[in-house]
Amino acid sequence: MKTVLKRIAYVSALMSILTAPASAQSLLWKEVAPGVWKAEAGIPEKQSLLTASGARPAIEALGKMKPLPFPLNEKEITAGVVDGETYIKFPLIRNEQIFGFGLNFKSVHQRGKILTLHVDHYGGTDNGRTHAPVPFYVSDRGYGVFINSARYIRVWAGTAVNKERQDPSAVRDRNTDKRWTSAPYSDAVEILVPAAGCEIYVFSGPTALDAVRRFNLFCGGGPLPPRWGLGFTQRVPTLYTAEKVIEEAKEFREHNFPLDFIGLEPGWQSKAYPCSFEWDRTRYPDPVGFVNTMNEMGIRLNLWTNPYVSPESPVYGRILPHTATHTVWGGVVPDFSIKDACDIFTGQLKQSQVSIGVAGYKLDEIDGYDKWLWPDVAKFPSGNSAEQMRQTYGLLLQRITAEMFRESDRRTWGLTRASNGGGVSFPYVIYNDYYSHEDFITALINSGFSGVLWTPEVRSSKTGEEWLRRFQTVVFSPMAMINAWASGTKPWSFPEVENEIRYYALLRIQLMPYFYSEFAKYHFEGTPPFRGMALEPGFRSGTQQEVKNTNLNDNPYAEAITREIKDQYMAGEYLLVAPLFTGQTSRSVVLPEGNWYDFYTGKYAGNGEVITVAPESGRIPVFVKDGGIIPMMPPALHAPAAGQKFDLEIRYYGKKPGKYMLYDDDGISFDYEKGNYSWREITVVPGRDGKPAGAISKAVRGKPDNIGKVEWKYMSIE
Description:
By secondary structure, this protein is an alpha+beta fold. It contains 13 helices and 37 strands. It has four domains: 2-169 and 193-218, glycosyl hydrolase (family 31) (Immunoglobulin-like), CATH 2.60.40.1760; 227-532, Glycosidases (TIM Barrel, Alpha-Beta Barrel), CATH 3.20.20; 533-624, Sandwich (Immunoglobulin-like); 629-714, Golgi alpha-mannosidase II (Immunoglobulin-like, Sandwich). A seven-stranded parallel β-sheet has the order 20-19-18-15-14-13-21. The longest helix has 22 residues, at 386-407.
């Protein structure tokens, strides 16, 4: 009888939380930064996403944004703790769209999804298990929500239908009413955190983009890469030798292809899987000489590694007391929430690699799979649970390696396979082993909602057409990379498209002033450099539901699928990129309101409409909004070195007055944090004769000035 009464009491308590109009625990919202509010449900754990990342809010930058009140009705947000788990509910209104929840690959609109936010290798389904399952979402109503917990968070994003809901939908009879649906309307986002408390943050807008900006700035602002990081990179086959790497670098020069850094795969280490973190002296007998040779050629080195320590590593004995109970491939797992473990690990990297000029790392296999990563029953000496370490391991490793380069006043640019909320400022781009071109573009779009960066890397292709289409998209992404670790492909591997590939490789270099400025805006203003159309003013396209399979034997509940725009995106302030995929000769493009122009020709393309484009062979459709200003430099084989001047071609599109802020610094150090940078204003206005007239502000004395001659190109003059 007592057991029955306990069960009744538990159910009653749970229902009171889920159905009550107010929270079982009153949430006290406090503005902790301009436009950022925080509340605590229960007792938050010490280990969280923000503590792991060490994120420091950019208070000054947040203070420059428009002050706004709390963007929601506080009474409609409920929370409570039952049986050691935290229940949270946020309201939704009809037709409200939400985006985010991390690096998803199949869909952009997240309303109607059920997710378990769990760091893992992406397995082909948007179920929350992904490389960066960031517990942040943003609404098209102009607010954002972040759950600061390092747990496997469950999310019902407009799917759970509470009997006490504020906006009930009609009950329909399936037998007689064709409007019946298996997914009835839900007016809430409900979240379950498997812990007895957590921090909850709300970010005001007024627009969705503003809410994203506040989230990014609260997490420290985006990374500012070195200029060379925005150049072109090639990852070479696993067992290459020093001689083969140098030979390949020379081949790039001979073929007139740009190259700024080369990635070495596991074969550079004496032992891998698990790792020694030492050079293999059979393939790289003189690491110092090798690195110097590459640097003299203007090419940096990026080294693959994972953090699992081989018994043959020189640091094994010292790091062993600071490792988990379980191993990965026989290597011990450092607890990077312990300072001694961090110091031992980074000390080896600094001594063997960074001190001789290595420029960055590829942090592999820190995401999953479950079959080889530590299990949730593992114990870590810090006392943090295996679950918490799974959710934060990518953050911790990014943090300590980024700080390692900061100590030597050198910016780095690398790759990671796991991240999470709070990691906005880390100089790493996410990649994975999945290889769907279409889904890679969707992921690129979703990265902009969640404070992470993603590259649609190129590895191999079956045809020259596929090679070209994949290559074109990396040019308009955070890292222009070919990953040839297994295939050995080169940019010129398909002779039939070599000229087109070279054009886009050089275009990447030409666009460097533009992309460098856009990353500066990411750092100083929080604006993601690559982002979905939902964040672009004047974009009105939402989702459509359609039932493609009407056979009730195959689809018994007549489940509909969601049609959405997930194959076009904004690259910086002015460029709209609409990739073509293998087999396509034309495609539709949804243009936001306002006049838009073809990037290549300057010709008018449309205004707030759906257009069909069939570009000339070898082109990726790119459009520029009216008044768009695109600063470009001459084609080159390398990014400009520190202090190297470069000429500027300023392209202007359209007819309305234009303005652009061009960023400049030394391109390599952290001096910009001391104020040693400049913004130069570029303006274009219609002249008296109807022709545009451009101007660029003078360089400020004592500030960086890398701009040489300036040439104006008015693209839309008839």
